[in-house]
Amino acid sequence: MKAGKAPAAPRLFGTNGVRGVVNTQGMDCEFAMRLGLAIGTYMKGTVMIGTDARTSNDMLRSACSAGLMASGCDVLDCGLVPTPTLQYAVKMNKVAGGVMITASHNPPEFNGIKCIDPDGTEMARSNEERIEALYHSMSFRRAEWSGLGRTRTYNTAIEEYIDGIVSRLDTAAIRKAKLRVAVDCSNGAASFVTPRLLERLGVRYVTLNADPNGAFPGHNSEPTPDNTKDIVDLVKAGGFDLGFVHDGDADRTIFVDDRGRYMYGDRSLALVAHYACLEKRGGLVVTSVGSSMCVEDAAKLAGGRVEYTMVGSPIVARAMMDSGAVFGGEENGGLIFPELQYCRDGAMSAAKVLEIVAKHGRLSDLLDRIPSYAQYKTKTKCPDDRKQDVMRALAATAKGDRVDTTDGVKIFSGKSWVLVRPSGTEPIFRVFSEARTPEEAKDIAESYKKRVEELVAG
Ligand code: MG
């Protein structure tokens, strides 16, 4: 160890909280209680807590709450709620923060703990570092017997969240359109929210997997094309205006159009970006560097423009706050609506797309107006300690119209780009490209993969 520089404490929080397999990879009750002590020592006040639908939720919520109360924090338990429902409750109640027990879209054996800042956003990395330092040093605040925290139930979070969404929509237009939709709640947290929201909007609906069940009997909770076959079939067979599926904690939504076509997340991002810019007569849309050019095309068609950030929804949300963006999100179906809150919001995404369809026409027609591109993904090995050198060399020697080093190295040439990005968890580079045709996209990605391999070798 070099003098004067303390070793960095091992990182706990990833892009979306701490995650792990329950009871085998450290995601156990002892960990949750110790993390609860650290969070409580940092937050100092009333903390709202919620869970998704996993079998390990009661165990982890109880253990984490015990740690919070031991540090003197009162706990308001919101029960089984989508992550954005908890975030909205934290913001509206002006409490010291929130804790969500969720592993989002991971398989059922996983769970996780993520923290919410007092403004309802996913916790900023700098604040997570403070909690990590407290966790590792075990310098916890422990309240005296008379100052211990208490837990109370907070059972109006869902109602208030639905009210918040409904108040930001043109409900008359949605009602008048008499839409019929099919919705898949993935046996997750959306089950208690989205059907009620649709009723409030006067939308007729059929549900799939709308009972919370931590075994995920319907399908795993990541809304990939493989996991969404049932909703695609249902939309085709039932002649619905559209279908959609939420991930496990309902901060993301993936849509199926009226022709039964699965919509990748960057298509819904582009669609909503277009109408957000149209309504605001221009404005800024924020997304991360991996998003499709169709988002920029769709925003420009409505007089808007796009700003790119590093990958990660907390980063996108914060950039939106700083720049006064009209809309933002990521290509995985996580859309952020500043008029409601600065976080990904699955139910608001569904409601907003319903509003767009009600006002502007069939979803398939609206989508066909957005340019589409071919994408290609590959990866190549690189030792972690060589990644920075390789990226510097790649950026310095890249031939293209423009080189962007916001996150990895992104090289634009005409109507194509390639993004070479180091993995945060594995000794690899991910190489991701987009172009007019699948062949062109593949050629570009493969040639940069080769270039990276040359740089790694020598
Ligand atoms: Mg999620």
Task: Please describe what this structure looks like.
This protein is an alpha/beta fold. It has 3 domains: 18-155, Alpha-D-Glucose-1,6-Bisphosphate, Chain A, domain 3 (3-Layer(aba) Sandwich); 160-368, Alpha-D-Glucose-1,6-Bisphosphate, Chain A, domain 3; 374-457, TATA-Binding Protein, CATH 3.30.310. The chain is 38% helix and 22% strand. The chain is built from 15 helices and 20 strands. The protein has helices at 29-43, 57-70, 83-93, 125-137, 157-166, 171-177, 194-200, 229-238, 265-279, 293-301, 313-323, 346-360, 363-368, 387-397, 438-457, and strands spanning 18-21, 47-51, 75-80, 97-101, 110-116, 151-153, 180-184, 204-208, 242-246, 253-256, 283-288, 304-309, 327-329, 335-337, 341-344, 374-381, 402-404, 409-413, 416-422, 428-435. The protein has a 6-stranded mixed sheet with strand order 1-5-4-2-3-6, sandwiched between helices. Strand 2, helix 2 and strand 3 form a beta-alpha-beta unit. The two termini are 29 Å apart.
What's the helix count? 15
What multimeric state do the chains show?
A: single chain
Using the coordinates above, name the CATH class of the largest domain. Answer: Alpha Beta
The amount of helix comes to 25-40%
| Class computed from helices, strands and strand pairing | alpha/beta
What small ligands are held by the chains?
magnesium ion
Strands, total number: 20
Shape: globular
CATH superfamily of the largest domain: Alpha-D-Glucose-1,6-Bisphosphate, subunit A, domain 3
Radius of gyration: 22 Å
* End-to-end CA span: 29 Å
| Overall residue-averaged pLDDT value | 95
Number of domains: 3
Q: Note the beta-strand portion.
A: 15-25%
* Reported CATH architecture of the largest domain: 3-Layer(aba) Sandwich
- CATH topology group of the largest domain: Alpha-D-Glucose-1,6-Bisphosphate, Chain A, domain 3
Low-pLDDT windows of residues: 1-5
